[in-house]
Amino acid sequence: MPSIVLLLSDKRSGSTMFQDEICRHPAVQTVPYSPHSNLETHWWLMAAVLLRRPDQLFSAGQAYSGYGSPANARAYMVDLLARCVPDFQPPEDARALVFEGWEALCRTYARPVFFEKSPQFIANWAALSLILEWMQATGFDVKIVTMVRNPHGTLYSAAALFGTDPGERQYGWLELSRNLLAFEQMLPEGKLLRVRYEDLVQEPAEGFAAICRFIGIGPDPRVGSGTHAKSSGKWKQDGSYTLQLDPAVQQIARHFGYSSADLANPQGAAAGGERKPLRRRSPRLHANRLRDRLVQPALLRLRSAFGRKPAKDDSLR
Question: Within the chain, which residues score under 70 in pLDDT?
């Protein structure tokens, strides 16, 4: 039976590495194009915005603003479908577009396995609840892989790339981890596999072979061949990273199998726990957000209005 595999993880937790490796398997496909980075569809978060789900169901109780508006979310969704399922005619009804459009993607790319990862989902229960709703209605065999990473590794990587404050972002990690645990409890038996990033990069052949068996495909030696563990412990050597995790964060991390030693920060202990910024927020990041909310949706609407058929190598990114 064709199957759909969804990877749920935080940002900066190895999801792109996972996607690159699992898609080395000839049985696994992902979308060939997305208006978002790293071939992430954002489908269920776009759906939550388009369907105007209550603010309380989004991260921190605030509706996701990354697309700018529900109309922009629809523009992104229609563009994705036009590029990936060109014969599909998007219905005007928003709910029909969400569920029928996703099923069209699944029918096209489950040959026999369609893989999807969008780290934005796990922070927003509005997206997770729609995934659960779809899983109850679809005829596809759906498997969920959840991937966790030592919060220090995630927070350090996010600070280095996005300029976020690790001390503040640890509570975002806490929120999405609670979402993850609740979501896992609601899945039918046999639908869930949880993996740890550190285990996967240390023993990639064994780890990805187990993932392939869970998905229902034979292991392939190419899957996992491109992994490395170079970045898993960088936070321990950086003297500017001095964060000591909040006890509430440590509680959930220990539930995921991380020991007290794994969660101890030697740099923080030496510096008395003082936090120092790794870098300031990037002006490029601010510019990208403006592009995603304003410029790119306008271009997508223009392209749709004029019926332009983009070339395969044409991209707004």
Answer: 268-291, 294, 305-317
